[in-house]
Amino acid sequence: MKGETKLLYTRSFARSILRFVDIDDDGDDDLFVGKADGRIAFFNNQGSTTTPFFKLITEDLVVIHEGVDKQSNSILIQTILDVGNNAAPEFVDIDNDGDFDLFIGSKDGHIFHYENRGNKLSPRYFRKTPNYMGLKFGGNSVPLLDDFNGDRTYDLLVGTGSGKIHIFFNSGMPQEAVFCKAFKVSDPPDKRCKYQPELVADIAPQANAVPELVDWDQDNDLDLVVGKSNGKINYYLNTGDNFAPLWNLKSRHFQFIDGGGSVAPTFHDLNKDGFSELFLGTSSSKIVYYENHEILLDLLRKISAIQLVKIDMTASFEKVLSQACSQLRGIPECLVPLAVAFGVPEGKKINRLVELYPFILRPDLSIKSNSDNTDDITEVSSNSNKSEEDTSKQQNSVVNANIQDENKENMENAVTQVDQATAAGESETEKDVIKEKIDKLNSQGIITRNQLWLSSRN
Predict the structure, then answer these.
(1) What is the pLDDT of residue 77?
(2) CA distance 251 to 199
(3) Which of the residues in the chain have pLDDT under 50?
(4) What domain range includes position 351?
(5) Are 92 and 85 in contact (CB under 8 A)?
(6) pLDDT at residue 182, rounded to an integer
(7) Are 169 and 195 a contacting pair, CB within 8 Å?
(8) Residue 25: partners with Cβ closer than 8 Å, 6 or more residues away
(9) pLDDT in the model for residue 92
(10) How far, in Å, CA of 140 to CA of 206, rounded?
(11) How high is the pLDDT of residue 268?
(12) Which of 103, 128, 147 marks a domain boundary?
């Protein structure tokens, strides 16, 4: 894959789950694909960090099993990794030895653990257990590991075939993880057990929950998205923090994406611009790639005098806009070219940068502030005969049109209030209703600088 070029592959990509990881420590991310046949394909990145080029190295990742021969001597058996069906890989350094270990969810609900006994330049995966920590789920387990409570150890998030998502906080140490099943406090299975498992979400009546983490609202904590059996994606805004996550359902049809069957979302910043792209594994053997357009930077590219390389692209939109204005000789000189680039209606006078905000920030129309008003069961296609490609293209076009037409109605109302306050001679504090409106929408998870565009299908 290179930009929008399709990923070439000879077998089925059905129910594929993608994982990007720099497995050879060369500074760019390589690609592993877990497949419905229970095996894992490996693509080496022979491009660069910003312009990847993935070359298929093997369709069947090889691992090592320890065994004994007829004379009871210990032997090493090199074999193709196969977990039965629905391989869901995850790579983390679980033992803190500087290389990536491998965990794999499976159709039968077990989590396989392969220890990396090579190194970060040349991994060698040894099967340690086909039933990690004795954890068993109803089927189609999908593990994710990250530090969710800020204690510098990996915690475990697991999606299941029943639609439930569980979290297991790590009761161990960075060198030795301990994940405990539900236990009696008076009789723990391990004296180190201090955390009970928790139910994070349940997507019923849908099934096959495939969780993925992404900081979608860019507030420095991890939000949760979940692929479902009906082809849609749930979005949960993290209203907690890095020490106590609290995921609240905000959308049952995130970005109006519909894969037509069970989908597996993977977010990864492919071009290293600070905004994660979406790769969607589907039941139809296609991997759908949605490019993430950062709206403000796309608008600034229209102004030839602005050098984006001199702008901190990871900063807040207010700071990015201020830096761009400085390159245009500051206020008031910068206001005219910015207004033209941002599509401000002709004749509307812009006096402050804050008045440009409604033309920069866009509402994510797929997100509801009150999630109880959305319902998977009632969501049906208006034309069931359309192909998956036509349906997705139509949905993306509708989203884009809505964004252009409605272009932040709430904040335009705020601009009107500012104009009225100015005419009335009110104070700056009373006039700053735009900022208040933005803060309110942000708290509801509605505003986004991200915009996903259908780019290619494999």
Answers:
(1) 96
(2) 19
(3) 1-6, 8, 10, 369-412, 414-427, 429-431
(4) 294-356
(5) no
(6) 96
(7) yes
(8) 120, 121
(9) 98
(10) 13
(11) 95
(12) 147
**Closest of 225, 235, 232 to residue 206, by C-alpha:** 232
| Residue owning tokens 């129910």 | 15
State the pLDDT at residue 190: 94
Of 254, 256, 176, nearest to 212 (Cα)?
Answer: 254
pLDDT confidence of residue 291: 85
pLDDT of residue 125: 98
Which of residues 147, 178, 193 is at a domain's end? 147
Peptide bond into 205 cis (omega under 30): yes
Q: What residue has token string 């050879």?
A: 24
Residue 82: predicted pLDDT: 97
Instruction: Count the domains in the chain.
Output: 2
pLDDT at position 359 is: 82
What would the two tokens of residue 293 be?
Answer: 């357009």
- Look up residue 289 and give its two tokens: 């790639």
Task: Give pairs for 368-374: CB < 8 Å, separation 24+.
Answer: 368/250, 368/251, 369/250, 369/444, 369/445, 369/446, 371/248, 371/249, 371/250, 371/251, 371/252, 374/251, 374/252, 374/253
CA-closest candidate to residue 155, choices 140, 171, 141, 132? 171
